[in-house]
């Protein structure tokens, strides 16, 4: 039994001498039987002083935990139990090797027994008191069965796990304590072992006393008589449930990583396509502006193309930033008292011409009375706009798109339905995930629109769901938001400050083209503008030019814009200069850093000249200046 156990076993005498050790234990010890028999059990491990006290405590009957053993690139879990011997109290040391492979956890098979072993008659634990004490002390499941499979012995580990003693195990039979799905494998292993007379093993689930199941590596080996005939079988089981579950979790994680990688690769291909699309018309429009007569029809057409394509590029960048902000919980909502019905009317009118160009009919059903919610108007308009854009993208010409608003059961319900291509059942649950799009359909896009819809709605405490009867049957999206309480105070409408006169403006920008275009746009609006190309140049020009406003990039050739802002704020004579960060660093933490450095406003690129003009003219001088 010791020789064929599925774990490393060593029987130790009362003076810590090795009485018997199997091949697995010897392999862990890195020694041969001749080198350890009759000698100190701790000698091969070189750290007797660390665990000698633990062995003494175990011999007194205490439960102790031995540190794990690492030898030759293998890891072994070590255990110790006390056993009664004819001359004092001995110990059973067991070593369980952790053998992990992708997809399963397997133990190595032992070689077939030698001819000398086959000729030696073996006794069952119930017939030999030392073997009985050894099996009783093992933490692994051990059993002995007759040649026909009837249990003759089960150790306490089996009874503690299953709740079955020997009599109950005989009554139940092995197939009734094995998971039903594993019975065929058990039967096949048993027949194979009987036919070959060699050890066999199988991974299976045994029923525990509480009715649950755990995975075990179950090993079956024959006990032979003097003639080499199998008289009974010894079985051992090692609990590998935690390892199986960990491996299953790893496999699931690997599948998710592979799926994410596949989606990332697809997304990068789509992103490359979507970013390249506007480049051709932009290049052609720039060529036309260079060669066509100024103010002519061709020049005006080129200007229109540039505006539309830049707007498309800006929308792509904004979507990417918004998805990142939502995923990191960094998006900020500016909530107020919003009439969803009125907001839906305005959004529908904004999209009506676009849908009409695609040959789509657009219908709206909204109540005359207000449907109040507390929401960020711009974000809520983005939600409805994204749903309309999705309908427009996936509905063939001649189709219909409808929008409805209603107050239902304490919630404001906004529905956007179309007669388009519909959604397949396998995609319906994943349609709100980033970068997910229907295959072979639509007219471009990054697959972020619906992910943004879900993220924004959830931030408002609402829900969104998609419904479709299948391909070709259209789609409906329903957004539900909490209705505003009737006594909720109204948010006062802010009064815009009166427009200010033209300003003296310094543009600190390392990119020459960006600085020059911004200078021309600001001068066209009537401002006096100078340009600086570095932080050092910017600080010098601020001292000499004394601008009202400095538009400062963050990425400058010599130092970043944060340092420049701190230098300006550290100079009392420059206290009257208002600072605006004009940068592609547009995440919330970037805005926080800008405010901490002393910037009065933060504008994320790309930003329109109209927006810059609004910010510049809306800035009042600092208090006390």
How would you sum up the global shape?
Answer: elongated
Strands across the major sheet, in which order? 2-1-5-4-3
Mean pLDDT: 82
**In percent, how much strand structure appears in the residues?**
15-25%
Task: Give the C-alpha Rg.
Answer: 39 Å
Instruction: Kindly report how far apart the N and C termini lie.
Output: 94 Å
Helix/strand/pairing category = alpha+beta
Beta strand count:
24
- Helical content (DSSP H or I, runs of 4+): 25-40%
Low-confidence stretches: 100-122
Largest sheet: 5 strands, antiparallel
Counted by DSSP, the helix tally is 20
List the main descriptive attributes of the protein structure presented here.
single chain, five-stranded antiparallel β-sheet, 24 strands, alpha+beta, 20 helices, 625 residues, elongated
Describe the structure.
It contains 20 helices and 24 strands. The protein is α+β, with helices and mostly antiparallel strands and about 625 residues long. The strands form 6 sheets. A 5-stranded antiparallel sheet has the order 2-1-5-4-3. A 5-stranded antiparallel sheet has the order 9-8-12-11-10, with helices on both faces. Strands 14-16-17-19-18 form a 5-stranded mixed sheet.
């Amino acid at each position: 039994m010791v020789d064929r156990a599925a774990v490393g076993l060593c029987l130790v005498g009362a003076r810590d001498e090795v009485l018997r050790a199997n091949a697995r234990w010897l392999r862990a010890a890195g020694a041969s039987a001749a080198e350890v028999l009759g000698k100190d059990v701790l000698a091969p491990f070189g750290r007797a002083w660390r665990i000698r006290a633990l062995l003494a405590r175990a011999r007194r009957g205490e439960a102790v935990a031995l540190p794990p053993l690492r030898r030759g690139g293998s890891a072994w879990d070590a255990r110790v139990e006390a056993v009664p011997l004819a001359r004092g109290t001995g110990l059973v040391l067991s070593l369980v090797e952790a053998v992990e492979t992708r997809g399963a956890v397997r133990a190595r098979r032992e070689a077939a027994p030698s001819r000398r072993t086959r000729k030696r008659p073996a006794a069952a634990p119930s017939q030999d008191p030392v073997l009985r004490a050894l099996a009783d002390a093992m933490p692994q499941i051990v059993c002995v069965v007759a040649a026909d499979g009837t249990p003759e012995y089960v150790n306490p580990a089996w009874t503690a796990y299953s709740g079955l003693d020997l009599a109950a195990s005989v009554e139940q039979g092995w197939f009734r304590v094995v998971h039903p799905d594993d019975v065929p494998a058990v039967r096949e292993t048993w027949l194979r072992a009987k036919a070959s007379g060699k050890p066999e093993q199988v991974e299976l689930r045994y029923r525990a006393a509480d009715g649950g199941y755990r995975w075990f590596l179950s090993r079956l080996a024959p006990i032979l008589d003097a003639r080499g005939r199998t008289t009974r079988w010894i079985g051992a089981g090692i609990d590998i449930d935690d390892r199986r579950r960990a491996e299953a979790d790893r496999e699931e994680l690997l599948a998710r990583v592979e799926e994410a990688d596949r989606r990332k690769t697809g997304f990068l291909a789509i992103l490359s396509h979507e970013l390249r699309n506007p480049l051709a018309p932009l290049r052609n429009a720039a060529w036309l502006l260079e060669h066509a007569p100024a103010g002519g029809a061709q020049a005006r057409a080129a200007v229109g193309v540039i505006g539309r394509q830049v707007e498309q590029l800006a929308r792509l960048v904004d979507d990417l930033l918004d998805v990142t902000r939502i995923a990191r919980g960094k998006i900020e909502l500016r909530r107020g008292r919003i009439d969803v019905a009125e907001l839906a009317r305005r959004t529908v009118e904004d999209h009506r011409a676009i849908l009409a160009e695609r040959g789509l009919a657009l219908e709206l059903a909204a109540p005359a009375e207000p449907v109040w919610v507390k929401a960020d108007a711009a974000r809520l308009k983005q939600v409805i706009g994204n749903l309309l854009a999705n309908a427009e993208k996936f509905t063939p010409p001649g189709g219909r798109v409808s929008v409805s608003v209603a107050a239902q059961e304490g919630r404001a319900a906004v529905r956007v339905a179309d007669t388009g291509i519909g959604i397949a059942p396998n995609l319906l649950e994943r349609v709100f995930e980033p970068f997910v799009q229907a295959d072979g359909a639509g007219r471009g896009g990054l697959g972020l629109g619906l992910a943004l819809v879900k993220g924004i709605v959830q931030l408002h405490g609402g829900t969104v769901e998609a419904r479709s009867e299948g391909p070709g049957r259209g789609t409906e999206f329903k957004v539900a938001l909490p209705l505003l309480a009737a006594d909720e105070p109204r948010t006062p409408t802010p009064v815009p400050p009166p427009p200010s006169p033209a300003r003296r403006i310094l543009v600190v920008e390392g990119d020459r083209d960006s600085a020059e275009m911004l200078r021309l746009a600001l001068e066209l609006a009537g401002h006096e503008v100078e340009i600086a190309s570095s932080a050092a140049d910017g600080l010098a020009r601020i001292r000499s030019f004394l601008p009202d406003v400095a538009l400062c990039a963050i990425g400058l050739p010599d130092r970043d814009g944060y340092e420049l802002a701190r230098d300006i704020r550290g100079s009392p004579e420059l206290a009257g200069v208002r600072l605006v960060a004009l940068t592609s660093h547009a995440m919330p933490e970037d805005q926080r850093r800008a405010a901490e450095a002393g910037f009065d406003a933060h504008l994320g690129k790309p930003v329109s000249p109209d927006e810059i003009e609004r910010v510049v003219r809306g800035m009042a001088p600092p208090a006390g200046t």
